[in-house]
Amino acid sequence: MLAVDVEKRLGEFSIAVRFETAAGVTALFGPSGAGKTTLVNMIAGLVAPDRGRIMLADAVLFDSAQRIDVPAHRRRIGYVFQEGRLFPHLSVAGNLDYGRRMCGLAPDRAKMARIVDLLDLGHLTDRRTGKLSGGERQRVAVGRALLMRPRLLLLDEPLASLDAARKREILPYLERLRDEVGIPMVYVSHHAGELRRIATSVVRLDAGHVAAMGGRELLDAADADAV
Amino acid sequence: MLDLTPDEWIAIRLSLKIAIVATIVALPFGIAVAWVLARKNFWGKTLIDGVVHLPLVLPPVVTGYLLLISFGRRGLIGAFLADHFGIVFSFRWTGAALACGIMGFPLLVRPIRLAIEAIDRRLEDAAATLGANRIWVFLTITLPLALPGLIAGFVLCFAKALGEFGATITFVANIPGETQTISAAIYTFTQIPGGDAAAGRLVLVAIVIALAALVASEWLAQRAGLRFHGE
User: Fold this and answer.
1) Which of A77, A83, A127 sits opposite B129 (nearest CB)?
2) Which of A120, A121, A140, B31 is the most buried (most CB within 10 A)?
Protein backbone atom coordinates (compact mmCIF):
# COMPACT_ATOMS: atom_id res chain seq x y z
CA MET A 1 0.00 0.00 0.00
CA LEU A 2 2.30 2.74 1.31
CA ALA A 3 6.03 2.25 0.81
CA VAL A 4 8.37 4.70 2.51
CA ASP A 5 12.15 4.80 2.26
CA VAL A 6 13.44 8.22 3.24
CA GLU A 7 16.32 10.05 4.83
CA LYS A 8 16.34 13.53 6.26
CA ARG A 9 18.82 15.51 8.32
CA LEU A 10 17.56 18.17 10.70
CA GLY A 11 20.56 19.68 12.42
CA GLU A 12 21.89 17.11 14.88
CA PHE A 13 18.91 14.83 14.38
CA SER A 14 18.62 12.52 11.41
CA ILE A 15 15.84 10.32 10.18
CA ALA A 16 16.43 7.23 8.08
CA VAL A 17 13.29 5.18 7.84
CA ARG A 18 12.14 2.35 5.65
CA PHE A 19 8.84 0.54 5.97
CA GLU A 20 5.82 -0.69 4.03
CA THR A 21 2.25 -0.89 5.13
CA ALA A 22 -0.72 -3.01 4.12
CA ALA A 23 -4.35 -1.84 4.21
CA GLY A 24 -5.85 -1.21 7.64
CA VAL A 25 -4.40 0.98 10.35
CA THR A 26 -0.64 1.20 10.62
CA ALA A 27 0.58 2.57 13.92
CA LEU A 28 3.68 4.72 13.92
CA PHE A 29 4.66 4.20 17.48
CA GLY A 30 7.50 5.63 19.50
CA PRO A 31 8.53 8.15 22.13
CA SER A 32 8.30 11.87 21.46
CA GLY A 33 11.28 13.06 19.48
CA ALA A 34 11.48 9.82 17.52
CA GLY A 35 10.70 11.69 14.29
CA LYS A 36 7.10 10.53 13.89
CA THR A 37 5.61 13.90 12.95
CA THR A 38 8.42 14.72 10.53
CA LEU A 39 7.83 11.37 8.89
CA VAL A 40 4.09 11.92 8.37
CA ASN A 41 4.82 15.45 7.14
CA MET A 42 7.06 13.86 4.51
CA ILE A 43 4.27 11.46 3.52
CA ALA A 44 1.83 14.38 3.30
CA GLY A 45 4.24 16.45 1.22
CA LEU A 46 4.70 19.24 3.78
CA VAL A 47 8.37 18.40 4.35
CA ALA A 48 10.72 17.19 1.61
CA PRO A 49 13.07 14.29 2.43
CA ASP A 50 16.73 14.73 1.53
CA ARG A 51 16.80 11.39 -0.21
CA GLY A 52 14.54 8.47 -0.88
CA ARG A 53 11.22 7.42 -2.28
CA ILE A 54 7.60 7.41 -1.18
CA MET A 55 5.03 5.32 -3.04
CA LEU A 56 1.30 5.08 -2.45
CA ALA A 57 -0.11 2.02 -4.25
CA ASP A 58 1.31 2.49 -7.79
CA ALA A 59 1.80 6.24 -7.55
CA VAL A 60 5.20 7.79 -6.88
CA LEU A 61 4.75 10.69 -4.46
CA PHE A 62 8.42 11.42 -3.97
CA ASP A 63 11.55 10.11 -5.61
CA SER A 64 14.81 11.97 -5.19
CA ALA A 65 16.50 9.91 -7.95
CA GLN A 66 13.82 10.84 -10.51
CA ARG A 67 13.38 14.33 -9.05
CA ILE A 68 9.71 13.73 -8.40
CA ASP A 69 8.05 15.62 -5.58
CA VAL A 70 4.27 15.73 -5.92
CA PRO A 71 3.09 18.85 -4.04
CA ALA A 72 0.91 18.35 -0.99
CA HIS A 73 -2.22 19.66 -2.67
CA ARG A 74 -2.05 16.98 -5.38
CA ARG A 75 -1.32 13.99 -3.13
CA ARG A 76 -4.90 13.44 -1.98
CA ILE A 77 -3.75 12.38 1.45
CA GLY A 78 -6.04 13.32 4.31
CA TYR A 79 -4.25 14.66 7.36
CA VAL A 80 -5.71 14.98 10.86
CA PHE A 81 -3.39 17.19 12.89
CA GLN A 82 -2.81 17.04 16.61
CA GLU A 83 -4.35 20.47 17.10
CA GLY A 84 -7.14 20.00 14.57
CA ARG A 85 -6.23 23.11 12.59
CA LEU A 86 -9.83 23.92 11.76
CA PHE A 87 -10.26 27.10 9.75
CA PRO A 88 -11.52 29.74 12.20
CA HIS A 89 -13.22 31.88 9.55
CA LEU A 90 -15.39 29.03 8.27
CA SER A 91 -18.31 27.25 9.88
CA VAL A 92 -18.12 23.54 10.66
CA ALA A 93 -19.95 22.85 7.39
CA GLY A 94 -17.50 25.12 5.53
CA ASN A 95 -14.59 23.22 7.05
CA LEU A 96 -16.10 19.85 6.16
CA ASP A 97 -16.74 20.93 2.59
CA TYR A 98 -13.37 22.64 2.06
CA GLY A 99 -11.43 19.63 0.74
CA ARG A 100 -14.20 18.61 -1.64
CA ARG A 101 -14.30 22.12 -3.13
CA MET A 102 -10.53 22.40 -3.43
CA CYS A 103 -10.23 18.97 -5.03
CA GLY A 104 -12.93 19.92 -7.53
CA LEU A 105 -15.22 17.04 -6.57
CA ALA A 106 -18.95 17.19 -7.26
CA PRO A 107 -21.11 17.69 -4.17
CA ASP A 108 -22.12 14.32 -2.76
CA ARG A 109 -24.94 14.63 -0.22
CA ALA A 110 -25.02 10.92 0.53
CA LYS A 111 -21.32 10.83 1.35
CA MET A 112 -21.58 14.00 3.42
CA ALA A 113 -24.57 12.58 5.32
CA ARG A 114 -22.74 9.31 5.96
CA ILE A 115 -19.62 10.99 7.38
CA VAL A 116 -21.66 13.50 9.41
CA ASP A 117 -23.61 10.55 10.77
CA LEU A 118 -20.54 8.41 11.42
CA LEU A 119 -18.87 11.18 13.42
CA ASP A 120 -22.06 12.55 14.99
CA LEU A 121 -21.61 16.03 13.61
CA GLY A 122 -25.23 16.70 12.63
CA HIS A 123 -25.93 19.21 15.42
CA LEU A 124 -22.65 21.07 14.84
CA THR A 125 -22.65 21.93 11.15
CA ASP A 126 -23.91 25.52 11.49
CA ARG A 127 -21.52 26.38 14.33
CA ARG A 128 -18.33 28.39 14.17
CA THR A 129 -15.28 26.33 15.06
CA GLY A 130 -14.22 28.60 17.95
CA LYS A 131 -16.96 27.31 20.25
CA LEU A 132 -16.36 23.60 19.76
CA SER A 133 -15.01 21.35 22.51
CA GLY A 134 -11.68 19.61 21.96
CA GLY A 135 -13.37 16.32 21.10
CA GLU A 136 -15.77 17.98 18.68
CA ARG A 137 -12.90 19.78 16.96
CA GLN A 138 -11.05 16.53 16.34
CA ARG A 139 -14.17 14.83 15.00
CA VAL A 140 -14.68 17.73 12.57
CA ALA A 141 -11.00 17.49 11.58
CA VAL A 142 -11.42 13.77 10.86
CA GLY A 143 -14.60 14.44 8.86
CA ARG A 144 -12.93 17.23 6.90
CA ALA A 145 -10.04 14.93 5.93
CA LEU A 146 -12.39 12.08 4.96
CA LEU A 147 -14.66 14.20 2.78
CA MET A 148 -11.87 14.99 0.33
CA ARG A 149 -11.96 11.26 -0.43
CA PRO A 150 -8.31 10.66 0.42
CA ARG A 151 -6.29 7.71 -0.77
CA LEU A 152 -4.67 7.55 2.65
CA LEU A 153 -5.51 9.09 5.99
CA LEU A 154 -2.76 10.35 8.30
CA LEU A 155 -3.60 10.91 11.95
CA ASP A 156 -0.89 12.61 13.99
CA GLU A 157 -1.58 12.16 17.70
CA PRO A 158 -5.23 13.05 17.11
CA LEU A 159 -6.09 12.47 20.78
CA ALA A 160 -3.02 14.03 22.38
CA SER A 161 -4.71 17.34 23.21
CA LEU A 162 -7.70 15.64 24.86
CA ASP A 163 -8.25 14.47 28.42
CA ALA A 164 -8.94 10.81 29.23
CA ALA A 165 -12.72 11.13 29.04
CA ARG A 166 -12.56 12.83 25.65
CA LYS A 167 -10.18 10.16 24.39
CA ARG A 168 -12.71 7.49 25.35
CA GLU A 169 -15.32 9.54 23.50
CA ILE A 170 -13.38 9.68 20.23
CA LEU A 171 -11.83 6.22 20.05
CA PRO A 172 -15.09 4.43 19.13
CA TYR A 173 -15.46 6.81 16.17
CA LEU A 174 -11.98 5.95 14.97
CA GLU A 175 -12.73 2.23 15.30
CA ARG A 176 -15.87 2.69 13.24
CA LEU A 177 -13.81 4.55 10.70
CA ARG A 178 -11.38 1.65 10.43
CA ASP A 179 -14.15 -0.94 10.14
CA GLU A 180 -16.62 0.94 7.92
CA VAL A 181 -14.75 3.38 5.69
CA GLY A 182 -11.90 1.19 4.52
CA ILE A 183 -9.36 3.94 3.83
CA PRO A 184 -5.84 2.91 4.82
CA MET A 185 -4.62 4.89 7.80
CA VAL A 186 -1.31 5.80 9.37
CA TYR A 187 -1.87 6.55 13.02
CA VAL A 188 0.88 8.30 14.96
CA SER A 189 0.98 8.00 18.72
CA HIS A 190 3.28 7.48 21.67
CA HIS A 191 0.43 5.92 23.63
CA ALA A 192 0.28 2.12 23.46
CA GLY A 193 -3.20 1.79 25.00
CA GLU A 194 -4.79 3.92 22.32
CA LEU A 195 -3.01 2.04 19.54
CA ARG A 196 -3.93 -1.34 20.94
CA ARG A 197 -7.55 -0.55 20.16
CA ILE A 198 -7.09 0.86 16.70
CA ALA A 199 -3.92 -0.48 15.04
CA THR A 200 -3.76 -3.50 12.75
CA SER A 201 0.01 -3.33 12.31
CA VAL A 202 2.78 -1.49 14.10
CA VAL A 203 5.99 0.30 13.07
CA ARG A 204 8.06 1.21 16.09
CA LEU A 205 10.29 4.23 15.71
CA ASP A 206 13.13 5.24 17.92
CA ALA A 207 15.56 8.15 17.41
CA GLY A 208 14.70 8.49 13.73
CA HIS A 209 15.03 4.80 12.90
CA VAL A 210 12.69 1.84 12.66
CA ALA A 211 13.23 -0.22 15.81
CA ALA A 212 10.74 -2.97 15.00
CA MET A 213 7.88 -3.84 12.65
CA GLY A 214 5.07 -6.27 13.22
CA GLY A 215 1.68 -6.71 14.84
CA ARG A 216 0.09 -5.41 18.01
CA GLU A 217 2.36 -7.59 20.15
CA LEU A 218 4.99 -4.85 19.68
CA LEU A 219 2.82 -2.58 21.78
CA ASP A 220 2.85 -5.02 24.67
CA ALA A 221 6.60 -5.39 24.49
CA ALA A 222 6.93 -1.63 24.47
CA ASP A 223 4.68 -1.33 27.49
CA ALA A 224 6.82 -3.83 29.37
CA ASP A 225 10.05 -1.93 28.86
CA ALA A 226 8.49 1.50 28.92
CA VAL A 227 10.29 3.95 31.14
CA MET B 1 -27.19 74.22 9.57
CA LEU B 2 -24.53 73.71 7.00
CA ASP B 3 -25.43 75.64 3.92
CA LEU B 4 -22.84 74.55 1.42
CA THR B 5 -22.36 76.37 -1.86
CA PRO B 6 -22.20 74.40 -5.13
CA ASP B 7 -18.44 75.01 -5.28
CA GLU B 8 -17.97 73.53 -1.86
CA TRP B 9 -20.04 70.49 -2.83
CA ILE B 10 -17.82 70.04 -5.87
CA ALA B 11 -14.72 70.03 -3.66
CA ILE B 12 -16.31 67.50 -1.28
CA ARG B 13 -17.42 65.15 -4.06
CA LEU B 14 -14.02 65.47 -5.72
CA SER B 15 -12.23 64.67 -2.46
CA LEU B 16 -14.33 61.57 -1.94
CA LYS B 17 -13.86 60.44 -5.52
CA ILE B 18 -10.08 60.91 -5.37
CA ALA B 19 -9.74 59.18 -1.99
CA ILE B 20 -11.95 56.23 -2.96
CA VAL B 21 -10.27 55.68 -6.34
CA ALA B 22 -6.79 56.08 -4.83
CA THR B 23 -7.50 53.55 -2.07
CA ILE B 24 -9.23 50.98 -4.28
CA VAL B 25 -6.49 51.10 -6.92
CA ALA B 26 -3.76 50.95 -4.25
CA LEU B 27 -5.34 47.99 -2.44
CA PRO B 28 -4.25 45.11 -4.71
CA PHE B 29 -0.71 46.53 -4.87
CA GLY B 30 -0.73 46.98 -1.12
CA ILE B 31 -1.80 43.38 -0.55
CA ALA B 32 0.90 42.10 -2.91
CA VAL B 33 3.66 44.17 -1.29
CA ALA B 34 2.47 43.28 2.22
CA TRP B 35 2.48 39.57 1.34
CA VAL B 36 5.98 39.73 -0.15
CA LEU B 37 7.33 41.65 2.87
CA ALA B 38 5.61 39.28 5.31
CA ARG B 39 6.55 36.01 3.67
CA LYS B 40 9.61 36.34 1.46
CA ASN B 41 13.22 36.84 2.31
CA PHE B 42 15.40 38.16 -0.45
CA TRP B 43 18.34 40.40 -1.05
CA GLY B 44 17.23 44.03 -1.02
CA LYS B 45 14.12 43.45 1.08
CA THR B 46 15.15 46.21 3.48
CA LEU B 47 15.45 48.59 0.55
CA ILE B 48 11.95 47.75 -0.71
CA ASP B 49 10.63 48.16 2.81
CA GLY B 50 12.33 51.56 3.01
CA VAL B 51 10.99 52.75 -0.33
CA VAL B 52 7.44 51.72 0.66
CA HIS B 53 7.72 53.74 3.86
CA LEU B 54 9.45 56.72 2.25
CA PRO B 55 6.26 58.80 1.65
CA LEU B 56 5.62 58.59 5.40
CA VAL B 57 8.89 60.27 6.34
CA LEU B 58 9.66 62.51 3.36
CA PRO B 59 8.19 65.99 3.32
CA PRO B 60 5.00 65.65 1.21
CA VAL B 61 6.24 68.46 -1.03
CA VAL B 62 9.24 66.32 -1.93
CA THR B 63 7.02 63.39 -2.87
CA GLY B 64 4.85 65.75 -4.92
CA TYR B 65 7.87 67.17 -6.67
CA LEU B 66 9.24 63.72 -7.45
CA LEU B 67 5.84 62.82 -8.93
CA LEU B 68 5.88 66.00 -10.98
CA ILE B 69 9.26 65.29 -12.55
CA SER B 70 8.49 61.61 -13.20
CA PHE B 71 4.75 61.57 -13.96
CA GLY B 72 4.45 65.12 -15.32
CA ARG B 73 3.93 65.76 -19.05
CA ARG B 74 7.67 65.92 -19.65
CA GLY B 75 8.54 63.34 -17.05
CA LEU B 76 9.92 59.99 -18.19
CA ILE B 77 6.95 57.92 -17.08
CA GLY B 78 4.36 60.65 -17.66
CA ALA B 79 5.43 61.21 -21.28
CA PHE B 80 5.45 57.46 -21.95
CA LEU B 81 1.96 56.93 -20.52
CA ALA B 82 0.56 59.96 -22.33
CA ASP B 83 2.06 58.99 -25.71
CA HIS B 84 1.23 55.27 -25.63
CA PHE B 85 -1.89 54.96 -23.52
CA GLY B 86 -3.32 58.47 -23.44
CA ILE B 87 -3.12 58.46 -19.64
CA VAL B 88 -2.39 61.92 -18.28
CA PHE B 89 -1.78 62.63 -14.61
CA SER B 90 -0.52 66.19 -14.48
CA PHE B 91 -3.11 68.76 -13.41
CA ARG B 92 -5.87 66.16 -13.52
CA TRP B 93 -7.86 64.53 -10.73
CA THR B 94 -6.19 61.24 -11.69
CA GLY B 95 -2.88 62.81 -10.70
CA ALA B 96 -4.35 63.79 -7.35
CA ALA B 97 -5.49 60.18 -6.89
CA LEU B 98 -1.96 58.96 -7.75
CA ALA B 99 -0.40 61.33 -5.22
CA CYS B 100 -2.94 60.34 -2.55
CA GLY B 101 -2.49 56.63 -3.25
CA ILE B 102 1.27 56.90 -2.89
CA MET B 103 1.04 58.97 0.29
CA GLY B 104 -1.41 56.48 1.79
CA PHE B 105 0.49 53.40 0.60
CA PRO B 106 2.68 52.86 3.70
CA LEU B 107 -0.38 53.14 5.92
CA LEU B 108 -2.15 50.59 3.72
CA VAL B 109 0.71 48.09 3.65
CA ARG B 110 1.63 48.04 7.33
CA PRO B 111 -1.55 46.65 8.93
CA ILE B 112 -1.99 44.11 6.13
CA ARG B 113 1.59 42.96 6.55
CA LEU B 114 1.17 42.58 10.31
CA ALA B 115 -2.08 40.66 9.80
CA ILE B 116 -0.43 38.27 7.33
CA GLU B 117 2.53 37.77 9.66
CA ALA B 118 0.13 36.88 12.49
CA ILE B 119 -1.57 34.09 10.52
CA ASP B 120 -0.85 30.58 11.73
CA ARG B 121 0.90 29.10 8.71
CA ARG B 122 -0.03 25.62 9.83
CA LEU B 123 -3.56 26.46 8.71
CA GLU B 124 -2.17 27.05 5.23
CA ASP B 125 -0.43 23.67 5.37
CA ALA B 126 -3.72 22.09 6.40
CA ALA B 127 -5.42 23.72 3.40
CA ALA B 128 -2.69 22.35 1.11
CA THR B 129 -3.27 18.80 2.34
CA LEU B 130 -6.96 19.33 1.55
CA GLY B 131 -6.13 20.00 -2.09
CA ALA B 132 -5.73 23.78 -2.23
CA ASN B 133 -2.92 25.03 -4.46
CA ARG B 134 -0.99 28.15 -3.49
CA ILE B 135 -3.40 30.57 -5.13
CA TRP B 136 -6.43 28.98 -3.49
CA VAL B 137 -4.65 28.87 -0.14
CA PHE B 138 -4.07 32.60 -0.49
CA LEU B 139 -7.63 33.37 -1.58
CA THR B 140 -9.49 31.09 0.85
CA ILE B 141 -7.24 31.13 3.94
CA THR B 142 -4.63 33.92 3.97
CA LEU B 143 -6.80 36.75 2.66
CA PRO B 144 -9.91 36.06 4.81
CA LEU B 145 -7.76 35.62 7.93
CA ALA B 146 -6.01 38.92 7.19
CA LEU B 147 -9.34 40.71 6.77
CA PRO B 148 -9.12 42.82 9.95
CA GLY B 149 -5.73 44.09 8.75
CA LEU B 150 -7.15 44.74 5.31
CA ILE B 151 -9.95 46.83 6.77
CA ALA B 152 -7.55 48.78 8.99
CA GLY B 153 -5.18 49.44 6.09
CA PHE B 154 -8.00 50.46 3.80
CA VAL B 155 -9.39 52.98 6.28
CA LEU B 156 -6.00 54.46 7.14
CA CYS B 157 -5.14 54.83 3.46
CA PHE B 158 -8.54 56.35 2.74
CA ALA B 159 -8.19 58.83 5.61
CA LYS B 160 -4.70 59.80 4.49
CA ALA B 161 -5.89 60.18 0.89
CA LEU B 162 -8.81 62.33 1.99
CA GLY B 163 -6.60 64.73 3.90
CA GLU B 164 -3.58 64.73 1.63
CA PHE B 165 -2.44 68.22 0.78
CA GLY B 166 1.28 68.76 0.23
CA ALA B 167 2.06 66.18 -2.43
CA THR B 168 -1.21 66.76 -4.26
CA ILE B 169 -0.91 70.54 -4.51
CA THR B 170 2.72 70.27 -5.59
CA PHE B 171 1.98 67.69 -8.28
CA VAL B 172 -1.39 68.77 -9.69
CA ALA B 173 -1.87 72.28 -8.23
CA ASN B 174 -5.18 73.60 -6.91
CA ILE B 175 -7.67 73.74 -9.76
CA PRO B 176 -11.32 74.08 -8.71
CA GLY B 177 -13.41 71.21 -10.08
CA GLU B 178 -10.37 69.22 -11.18
CA THR B 179 -7.81 68.95 -8.38
CA GLN B 180 -9.17 71.16 -5.62
CA THR B 181 -9.96 68.80 -2.75
CA ILE B 182 -11.44 69.78 0.61
CA SER B 183 -7.99 70.42 2.05
CA ALA B 184 -6.94 72.59 -0.87
CA ALA B 185 -10.26 74.46 -0.77
CA ILE B 186 -9.90 75.17 2.95
CA TYR B 187 -6.40 76.43 2.33
CA THR B 188 -7.66 78.69 -0.47
CA PHE B 189 -10.49 80.08 1.66
CA THR B 190 -8.10 80.93 4.47
CA GLN B 191 -6.03 82.95 2.03
CA ILE B 192 -8.86 85.23 0.84
CA PRO B 193 -10.58 87.92 2.88
CA GLY B 194 -14.00 86.80 4.18
CA GLY B 195 -13.32 83.16 3.46
CA ASP B 196 -13.51 82.09 7.10
CA ALA B 197 -17.16 80.98 7.02
CA ALA B 198 -16.60 78.77 3.96
CA ALA B 199 -13.41 77.35 5.48
CA GLY B 200 -15.30 76.62 8.71
CA ARG B 201 -18.04 74.76 6.87
CA LEU B 202 -15.53 72.60 5.02
CA VAL B 203 -13.64 71.95 8.25
CA LEU B 204 -16.86 70.60 9.75
CA VAL B 205 -17.43 68.41 6.71
CA ALA B 206 -13.88 67.06 6.97
CA ILE B 207 -14.45 66.20 10.64
CA VAL B 208 -17.74 64.45 9.85
CA ILE B 209 -16.23 62.37 7.03
CA ALA B 210 -13.21 61.38 9.15
CA LEU B 211 -15.41 60.33 12.08
CA ALA B 212 -17.74 58.39 9.80
CA ALA B 213 -14.77 56.52 8.31
CA LEU B 214 -13.48 55.65 11.79
CA VAL B 215 -16.87 54.43 13.00
CA ALA B 216 -17.38 52.39 9.85
CA SER B 217 -13.97 50.76 10.19
CA GLU B 218 -14.54 49.98 13.86
CA TRP B 219 -17.88 48.38 13.00
CA LEU B 220 -16.39 46.37 10.13
CA ALA B 221 -13.41 45.23 12.21
CA GLN B 222 -15.71 44.08 14.99
CA ARG B 223 -17.83 42.10 12.58
CA ALA B 224 -14.73 40.51 11.06
CA GLY B 225 -13.43 39.70 14.56
CA LEU B 226 -16.72 38.13 15.59
CA ARG B 227 -16.62 35.82 12.61
CA PHE B 228 -13.38 34.33 13.95
CA HIS B 229 -14.50 33.93 17.50
CA GLY B 230 -17.73 32.25 16.63
CA GLU B 231 -20.82 34.10 17.77
Assistant:
1) A77
2) A140
